[in-house]
Amino acid sequence: MRPMGRGRMGLLVGTALAALALAAALAAPAQTSETGVVDRVVDGDTLMLVGGARVRLVQIDAPEVGSGECYSRAATRALARLAPPGERVRLEADPALDRVDRYGRLLRYVFAGPTNVNLALVARGDATVWFYRGERGRYAARLLAAASTARARRLGLWGACRAVWDPEAPAQTGPGSAAAVRGGCDPSYPDVCIPPPPPDLDCGDIPFRSFRVLPPDPHRFDGNHDGVGCER
């Protein structure tokens, strides 16, 4: 057998190293942290970054601007104070949760310097806690504790609004079930029990279909204004 030439040996070694590098990359965990610069604040729980990416602050919910919801403008101003345009922020994904929502928004915890903005908003009463599909991420316990304290002190929206989504209330199970929020069922939906905002709910967030809707329809379930919400 002829000895292997140096060129062939080098090629085999290089190929082996490349294969090992690829295997290591595939085995490495997905990136959970990145940075970006705030372009503008959309509302109390959504940011637009320079470059066009939209970021939805995960595990929290604030009243939506333009919906007429109580405290919506104040919540927007609160987020703008913590993460103003031009601020470089760190975005942290949660391995236990989705990374992108159905609208293409990045689902992230936002850090401005050492401040966890999601947690700060809840602690100040500028947002409440929202566990989509009941899924709880890494900061769930701290968020719940912050919301409980803010509610007890009637901070922010807890003192300003008639009814606020209570993340610790039992979940509703169907038509006629107990309200999932202190303050009862929203009168715009008389035949089912849907709590008033916040949070702003979509049809995918509730189990009801083709139910009666009366003005003002705060969740905007009746998109074509025919008096029926979330039509099948």
Describe this structure in words.
The chain is built from 5 helices and 10 strands; from the N terminus they run αββββαβββαβααββ. It has 2 domains: 33-160, OB fold (Dihydrolipoamide Acetyltransferase, E2P) (Beta Barrel), CATH 2.40.50; 169-232, no CATH class. It is globular, with a radius of gyration of 23 Å. It has 232 residues and is α+β, with helices and mostly antiparallel strands. It starts with 5 loop residues before the first helix and ends with a strand. A hairpin with a 4-residue loop joins strand 2 and strand 3 (54-57). The strands form 3 sheets. The chain has a 5-stranded mixed β-barrel. A two-stranded antiparallel ribbon has the order 4-8. Helix 3 (117-123) packs parallel to helix 4.
